[in-house]
Amino acid sequence: MTQRTRTAENPQLPDDDEDINVGDDAKAPKRRAAVTPNSRKQLGRPERRRGRKPGPTRVMMNVRVLLETDDLVTEIGEETGMGPQDVTDVAIAHYAAHLRRTGKLPKTPKRDQEEQTEAS
């Protein structure tokens, strides 16, 4: 493949600038950003029924559990019909109650103590 260059012998070749699309004609290629599904519609789920209240406010918490614990959550869910979120919520509440009974946690949750001291 020969490279085209403009020389005195071949003045018909265009200037370098003429080969480049500049201005309104030129359009940058569009790139699509990676889309992560974040709505019920994008996840393929039906829209929330009209008038249905949203669930309780939740906070994202990333944890890793042992395989045995994951199997237990699955087993509990199958037996009770609860989802993993509900199983985890109940388990943490049960463990917190145990720690309160044994004196390893205060009897009233920390935020309730803060509200009581502010009200005083």
Task: Give your account of this protein's structure.
This protein is mostly helical and 120 residues long. Helices cover 35% and strands 0% of the residues. The model has no long low-confidence stretch (mean pLDDT 77).
Tell me the number of strands: 0
N→C terminal distance: 88 Å
Percent helix: 25-40%
SSE succession: HHH
Radius of gyration over all CA atoms, rounded: 32 Å
Strand content: under 5%
Structural class: mainly alpha
Q: Report the major sheet.
A: none
Q: Give average pLDDT, whole number.
A: 77
Subunit arrangement of the protein: single chain
Shape: elongated
Number of separate helices: 3
**Poorly predicted tracts of residues:** none
How would you sum up this structure in a few lines?
The protein is 35% helix and 0% strand. The protein has helices at 67-80, 84-101, 110-119.
Q: What does the secondary structure layout of this molecule look like, with pairings?
A:
Elements: H1 67-80, H2 84-101, H3 110-119
Using brief descriptors, characterize the structure shown.
120 residues, mainly alpha, 3 helices
